[in-house]
Design goal:
The protein is built from two helices and eleven strands. With 133 residues, the chain is mainly β. The longest helix has 7 residues.
Amino acid sequence: MPKFMSLNDLAAGSNTASVTVAVKPAVSIYTITAVAGKGGQIDPEGMISVNKGDSQTFTITPDGCHQIDQVLVDGLSEGPISTYTFTDIQQDHTISASFVFPSRRVYNANTGMEYEIIQQAIDAAQDGEIIIV
């Protein structure tokens, strides 16, 4: 069983001791704020905590009747991309996605097909499919 010495024992000079202290460096944690506008999602969304040096991937998905307009990363446009990965994170970041409704005249929301007139869309549709005019 090891013998424990008090500070008084050491101060009195009765014994000497060697102490080794290992210090583990603190891990820096950064925040990525991810926001999706109306018409779609970004995953993960919200305030995401990430360790320094790690990577984090985001997936951008429009709702059935929308398409990705643009993705802003730290305020700069990356265009209408569906994924973005931050690598070797050394600071806080932001990512936001905006979505638009396509400017098609007649659109099958299930198949993504576009038509010139509604009758074409109706003729091509299967039961339960949604036609948007």
